[in-house]
Please model this.
Amino acid sequence: MKQSSIPESVRLAVHKFRKAHLSWIFLLCLLSVVTVWNFATGFVILLLRQLRFDSIDFIGFSLVGIPICLLVSATIASRRQISKQKALAVIDGHNKAGGLMLATSETGDISWVDRLSRQPEVPGLKARFGERIPALLFSILFLIAGIKIPLYDFSRDRDPGMDLKGLEEKVLMQIDTLEETDILTQEEAEELKETVEQIVKTADKNDPSKTFEAFDQLEEKIQKEGATSAQKTIKQLEELEKMKNLAEKLQSTDSSDSESLKSALSDLQNSFSSSEASRKMAVEKKNSIQKGLDSVSQDGNPSPEQVKKAAEELKSFIQQEAKRLSQAAQKLNQAKIIDRKTFDRLMREGKIRPIKNQQDMENNQGQLIMAPANDGGVGQSSGEAGEQNGPSGQSPLGKGATSRGPGTAPINYERKSSMHKVKFNDEKLPDPGSTSLEDSVAIGVGITSPELEAENASGNLLNQIESQDPGRSGGKSELILPRHRSTVKSYFNRKSP
Amino acid sequence: MNKKATLVTQDELGSIADKCHKILAELNKILVGRPQLHKMVLIGILSRGHILLEGLPGVGKTALIKILGELMNLEFSRVQFTPDLMPGDILGAHILQQDESGRREMTFQPGPIFTNILLADEINRASPKTQSALLEAMQEKSVTLMGKTRKLPDPFFVLASQNPIELEGTYPLPEAQLDRFLFKLEVKNADVATLKEIIFTRRHGNPPKPEFRVAKEELNLLFSVMDRIYLPGAVADYIARLVNASDPSSSSASSLVKQFVQYGASPRAAIAVAESARGVALLAGRPTVGFEDVREVVVSALNHRILLNYKARFEGISSADVLIDLLERVKETELGFEQEVELESSGG
Model:
């Protein structure tokens, strides 16, 4: 197209028209490219999420495509833009120029330029979007769905998964109890809780035994701590009992007998100083009691009132301590931390006895109180458990009585092990006839019918009777004498009754 | 497109266009009532093409051609085609003649075809053999007899007529011959006002004589200017797409074409459209052919060149219907991008 021949107004009109055309083409391209990008990105996001790459910023990932789409659309649009000649033809036809614009452009003959319109009209353009807009909207929905839609766990249908919630709660409760009763420090308790969390997180649905083993080990550790604590508690209670007896003895000692009094006081002081309870006691309280006892002992002739006061103070302390220990023991018992073995032993030794209600506990503050009368509780003795569950020992209402440790846990008969799909391989059993009977003793009786051995090359029949070799198969038939053949044959061919 | 071509000057074209308008005006004055028909016939003459006129008897086909011949100062011959007409009756024959010295020899006696304008009346009544005698003449502008080719006068036009109602005993023109006609124009009946004027002014049916005649030099100039009317590339592209779209096997064919057209237009049709569009441009006083010029002549130039199938006959679809639909669907300029971007106006 010769630029110099056509008027400027026509040239501007051509430029304007091409620009409008380019814009529409660009818009159509952009719709298509963005639609494709959205579908592709949505698919990739779904794939990444299914592969558990959740740390990727999916929104940012999809927004990266905006400049790419713009660039691609611009490139395509620039290639598909209408040519100047075609644009001129459109304007020529729209303005009814009769081909004058085209001819002037093509030939360069400007003799007819004055016949051209001074301000040629630029025709408007419109685009038919067709299915592009619905496709774009659908692609946006697809992209959003790819980011937001919850993923379906395909393994759920094959394996219902492990229900660890109850187990987890139980163990965490036990850990809290140990922390409350000062058996575990805060750091130790946190560490155990993290362990629980880790076990739950790494639980493998295909191999639940590992998870349960891990929980078993953790519970064992907790029970060990509980048992150790129980032992300590028992020891403390014994000490307290002793102190209480000494205090009573001190109270009952004749105040006129200063020697006995001093002796009793001294015993009490020693007992108090060496006790575990006094070590755990707050410094102020300990000093107060110690001071009281010391003041009494230092005094050459302590008065009955002083003695009584010291003994009462100590007894009060013993009562509070016993109460505290009982409450701690109660907590441990409620948390089912103490195992049955420990409990049974303590019961046998008379260190503990079960309580049935709160009144019982209040009435027996000086004794270690353990084991409520709960159903299936660890605090029950075997005898009581039998009474609970019935004389036959069968659990009522079909509930399984087997437990995984302290307390009871329902048996899940539907839980499948990791090997539940393993099929037995068909294996051909060895031919019993060929089994080597190393331990067998030759008794000279064959288990199969004897065979007649063929003649050898020399034509002589082998009439020897060979003894059975213990190392050989028991199925080896024996040679028999010719005169016995018919008898033997009829024996083995007889019909069994 | 020819980048070295120069356009016809405004003065030159102006005088020629005035002359053409004068011819038209005279024609309209003499033969009242059908200015569009007269325009198309003049365009056909200017394009140096043959024209087929279809109309009932007495509508003025012969009068039109006769007057036109007189106006254009062209020799005119009329041949009434009958079933017993022989080729020799049209082309001429060798006859035995004796000269003054008594020597006898075969002398060629030219037939009525040796003229500028041949009016072949009721051409479909003649036998195919006679019809085919016109084939060479129409295409080659020559006649071959007894091994000797004789050129026909220049310019040479065949203006044929055919009667649409008399089908019995007629021989429809073959497609090869139909394709040689530039236009097929329908000569319709006159309206009431025209009939009234005819009654008053043509008491015996003879039209008045034209008041002027175009000189031979003017005619030659007319034709030379016609040859210099410029056809832009975009317009040629439009013509090509139109003709291509008339072929049912083409990818750009419309549903109507695919459904009702058996054979589409030939390349000769494209040439015919281009040439006749030049005539339109000349009459419009433009040195170039525009898109609207093409649209004006497409129906007349292509309606006898596309062959419809039996479905079209059953459903009453005519060639003109197909071509009008074609004009609506084929855009003057392809804007690209799968036609998803289009002009807001319906014209483009």
The radius of gyration of chain A is 50 Å.
